[in-house]
UniProtKB/TrEMBL annotation:
Domain of life: Eukaryota
Protein name: Fe2OG dioxygenase domain-containing protein
GO BP term, pick one: response to molecule of fungal origin
Record organism: Solanum lycopersicum
Domain Fe2OG dioxygenase: from-to ranges: 214-290
Lineage of the species this protein comes from: Eukaryota, Viridiplantae, Streptophyta, Embryophyta, Tracheophyta
This protein's UniProt keywords: Iron, Metal-binding, Oxidoreductase, Vitamin C
Stored InterPro entries: DIOX_N, IPNS-like_FE2OG_OXY, IPNS-like_sf, Oxoglu/Fe-dep_dioxygenase_dom
Family: Belongs to the iron/ascorbate-dependent oxidoreductase family.
An MF annotation (GO) of this entry: metal ion binding
Signal peptide: none
Length: 290
């Protein structure tokens, strides 16, 4: 009687070691792409269920709400209609797009260019801003929850605390400093308008949410999603909720943003001149009820 013995060696995956090595480069996902990788590292590979969720999205019959703010300050009737639209979209979606919001298209385009410029700088220049110290006014890293999340997202991020304490210009990278300050200044003004609309939509006085201090702080995030050699295996940003009062999102023209609506993932179409507004967890958890 013969006996065959086979030794099978299974390579042990040391995820923490891979995360630490990645973080130590201070180059982010862009650094991997610049190094010419042809396969997505294991730390970025999403569970197989991602494919299932992708297959059920794109209900083409569902139209993402777009709200036109044109004339909101001059026409009381328009203003009343806009308040109703904001209330309906906030209750049924938690999201909506706004157009004619007062921020010029050239400012939005310049802001997108500024984000790209920052992340496409030479790595050695960028490294000076790389940190996980959230007490700093400006930080650059890849995945703020790198060592806690089960899967790493395919993106790099910069984070700037703009308000309530004003920044000194030298606390921001020169490559995007001026446009970041200009854009966020205008977003603060838009934010006040949005808080007024939301307040009125739930039957409160226009200044109610502002008087609560909801409009005092501003955190600006610049997200960068480098070209991926195996995009079917990973995501730029996985499913999440925003833990703030309001998020104002400036999309590029590539698309890919989705929101969960009535158990379906729905594409948010890039709309020229539009900004996406998300009702955040803090606003939902407050006394405001739609």
């Amino acid at each position: 009687m013969g006996v065959m013995k086979t030794n099978i060696h299974v390579e042990k995956y040391e995820r923490m070691a891979e995360l630490q090595a990645f973080d130590k480069t201070k180059a982010g996902v862009k650094g991997l792409v610049d190094a010419g990788i042809t396969k997505v590292p294991r730390m970025f590979i999403q569970p197989s269920m991602i494919e299932h969720s992708r297959s059920e999205n794109n209900n083409k019959l569902i139209e993402f709400p777009i709200i036109d703010l044109d004339g909101i300050k001059e026409d009381p009737i328009k203003q009343k209609n806009i308040v109703q639209e904001v209330g309906h979209a906030s209750e049924s979606w938690g999201f909506f797009q706004v157009i004619n919001h007062g921020i010029p298209s050239h400012v939005m385009d310049a802001m997108k260019d500024g984000v790209t410029r920052f992340f496409e700088q030479d790595t050695e220049v960028k490294k000076q801003w790389y940190t996980r110290d959230l007490n700093k006014e400006f930080t650059f890293n890849s995945n703020f929850d790198l060592f806690r999340a089960p899967v790493t997202n395919w993106r790099d991020t910069f984070r700037a605390t703009i308000a309530p304490i004003p920044l000194k210009p030298e606390q921001l990278p020169s490559v995007c400093r001026d446009i970041l300050l200009e854009y966020t200044n205008q977003v603060m003004k838009l934010g006040e308008t949005l808080f007024e609309l939301v307040s009125e939509a739930v039957g409160l006085e226009p200044n109610h949410l502002k008087d609560m201090g909801c409009a005092e702080g501003l955190l600006a995030l610049g997200q960068y999603y480098p070209a991926c050699p195996q995009p079917e295996l990973t995501l730029g940003t996985s499913k999440h909720a925003d833990n703030d009062f309001l998020t104002v999102l400036l999309q590029d023209n590539i698309g890919g943003l989705q929101v969960l609506h009535q158990s379906h993932w729905v594409d948010v179409p890039p709309t020229p001149g539009a900004l996406v507004v998300n009702i955040g967890d803090l606003l939902q958890a407050s006394s405001v009820t739609f």
